Amino acid sequence: MPLDQTLEQLTQDEWIDIPQGWSQGRTIYGGLVAGLLMHKALSVMNDESKNLLSTSITFVGPVNEGRVRLTVEILRQGKSVTTIEARLWQDQAVQTILIASFGQPRSSEIFVLNLPEAPDYLSPEQFSRMPFVKMMPECYQQFDLRWAEGHYPMTQQAPDFGGWCRYDIQKHSPRALNVADLLILMDIWPPGVLPMFQTIAPASSLTWHLTFVRPVAYELHDWFKYQVVTQHAAFGYATEYAHLWDAQNRLIAISRQTVTVFA
Fold it and tell me: Has this prediction a pTM greater than 0.85?
């Protein structure tokens, strides 16, 4: 089932079947899981006057292809801010938890603009698309990634990288892009430490926190810039932060992840 049909079904029902083509090793691609939870949360809140301010996702356990249930609870609905918790269940166990806060713009005398500058990459057309090889998780075929700096995973090189990304235009029909779509897209970049790996070994997100600094108003086939920085890695865990900009160098989201490393 195409992604847009899966999202539409999720609007109407708590139970869905995870679509094929999104596996990532022993589990379903975490970005898809986060996006499904966000889409369900948005459908329950049903308030377009409030934009996503921040969200935190904890990947409790692996999600497999098959039937899953998504439940949502509105923890508090205030005049300005609504806080929601969404859970994905499989085999009668919670596998992923999302908490999100949505807010209306408010008048304020406080204004600080201390944002990181977007990297000065060449246009995406001037870079080659990251090739897909059999050893890669199949979820990468859903997207178009263009490495602009740093090294590919498992090249025994320094950590961290950046580049352009978008949905694959052959696999996804054009439409407006929403917050759930953006979560699905942003997580496709691997952990920043993967270029350091000497051999194939797993690494997966444990927790993921996102702060959004501007409303999401884009098309599904638009290009976005991404850059990741690893701050600390030891004892099988890594901490990293990343930024996502649009093609006009406007910052959209700030990401922070704790990653489990099996190498």
Answer: yes
Residue in this structure with the two tokens 């691609």, named with its chain if needed? 29
DSSP 40-68: HHHHHH--TTSEEEEEEEEE-S---SSEE
Q: What is the C-alpha separation between 119 and 127, in angstroms, rounded?
A: 15
User: Pairing state of beta strands 237-246 and 251-261?
Assistant: antiparallel
22-27 long-range contacts, CB within 8 A, separation 24+: 22/138, 22/139, 22/142, 23/65, 23/137, 23/138, 23/139, 24/137, 24/138, 24/139, 24/204, 25/137, 25/202, 25/204, 26/62, 26/202, 27/62, 27/63, 27/64, 27/204
pLDDT tens readout for residues 69-86: 999 999 999 989 999 999
**What are the tens digits of pLDDT across the range 131-158?**
988 888 999 999 999 999 999 998 999 9
User: Which pair of structure tokens corresponds to residue 135?
Assistant: 């050893």
Q: Residue 242 has which token pair?
A: 């990343």
Read off the tokens for 115: 């944002």
Integer Cα distance of 78 and 102 in angstroms = 10
Q: Is 139 helix (H, G, I), strand (E, B) or coil?
A: helix
Angstrom distances, CA of residue 47 to CA of 81, 98, 216? 11, 18, 15
The beta strand positions in 104-201, using DSSP E, are 143-150, 161-167, 176-177
CA gap 104, 217 in Å, rounded? 16
Tokens 């000065």 sit on residue: 120
Buried b (16+ CB within 10 A) or exposed e, 79-110: eeebbbbbbbbbeeeebbbbbbbbbeeeeeee
In the chain, alpha helices (H) = 3-12, 30-45, 179-186
Instruction: Identify whether the C-beta of residue 207 lies closer than 8 Å to the C-beta of residue 59.
Output: yes
Read off the amino acid at residue 31.
Answer: G
